[in-house]
Amino acid sequence: MDINVATGSLPWYRSLSRQQWGVLVASNLGWLFDGFELYALFLTVGFALHQLLDAAQYNEIPRYAGYILATTVFGWATGGVIGGVIADYIGRKRTMILAILAYSLTTGLSALAWNWLSFAVLRFLVGVAIGSEWATGASIVSELWPDYARGKGGGLLQCGAGIGGILASGVWLAVGGVGPNAWRWMYLIGVLPALATFWIRRGIPESPRWEAVRERRYAAHALRRTGAPLEGENVALTRFTVVDLFADRAVRRPLICAFVMMLSVTFAFWGVGTFIPTYVGSAAAKSGLSAPYWSAWAGLITSICGVAGFISLGFLADNLGRKPAAMLFYFMCLVLTPIVYLWAWNFTVLLLCVGIFGFFSLGIWAWAPIWLPELFPTRMRGTAVAFCFNAPRFISCIGPVIAGTLIVSLGGYGPAATIVGLFFILGLAAAPFLPETKGKPLPETLTPALRAGAA
After folding, report:
1. What is the CATH number of the domain that holds 119?
2. Residue 232 contacts by C-beta under 8 Å, 6 or more apart in sequence?
């Protein structure tokens, strides 16, 4: 059966095989636990710094929080780019297993920090491990899911991050009041589900598309060793994938546009969205309410609405197209940033706006696992997807630093967030220049034998 053709009148979810669902569930779980760990940082960074800094430095907490977030993003960028290259050479499945193992070994180390600098270094290591995982999951889901449902698959994959945020918020509601070391327990708890995911992922299949490219790559290298002249794809297959990515003129335009779109959302989100729990906590304190309690609720509301946003973008991408769906979410993020940080006139309205903002500011990330894999051929897909998704973080890692500095210098969250949020304009401007790929096969189609193996 052709995996790219819906079966009769069956709904889309009934026409997928158990293997295809299994790959999605395993990839989603890995991203879920990564999302738990990342959102745990958003929820706890302010409280951790209260313990890791001297009392005289408390007024500088937003600035130091920016440093911590920036080092995490920088580590994510480093590990993400490396992980994508590795996935193109040793396979999607094996790279995911290595990333899970690395994450399991590093995430708990954050609980051992003794000052803000050690915390920053440990966060960098966790970022490296987390960054290595996403591109492999996005690649294998796109390569095993059919064309007619790939958008939904990407949205369902990405929603794992939001579910992880929900779990993190729930755990923080439970442990946030146990004392000054509550933030350390968050990172220790984060180790356990990652270890479970490592074992789950041992049973997922390798991508038939990648296996076919591996065989062709071996054959191209063998041909080159004989001294025979290489032509066409054989030339590309013998190049290092990073070199191939920049040497292939056919992918240059989507590479640049996708990079700009990711730079837009990473810079704006890490400079705006990550401060939501801290901002709501400060607003709660001004109203005489518990800051830890309401910061946890802000995270929970954002994450729940974000899950709905992830899934909605996937369905919209399969129905309206990749381009209009992505542009809608970028536009709404641009408009909602000043509404949340400047114009929410009371605490109840602020929480409502935070939920709507979470729907779009988290949901916007789903365009990446949906659209990016459809822009590049299999031989470089892991490298290209990882580069576009992660390399912008080498630049956007300064977003939290800039936002934290602006918060201190401008005397509040509102003006700083509004300024940084203008970066959403870049994504809105770049999206029209990418090709529409709704319902189209991946740049390399499956052979009949591989289709049978993937079905």
Report:
1. 1.20.1250.20
2. none
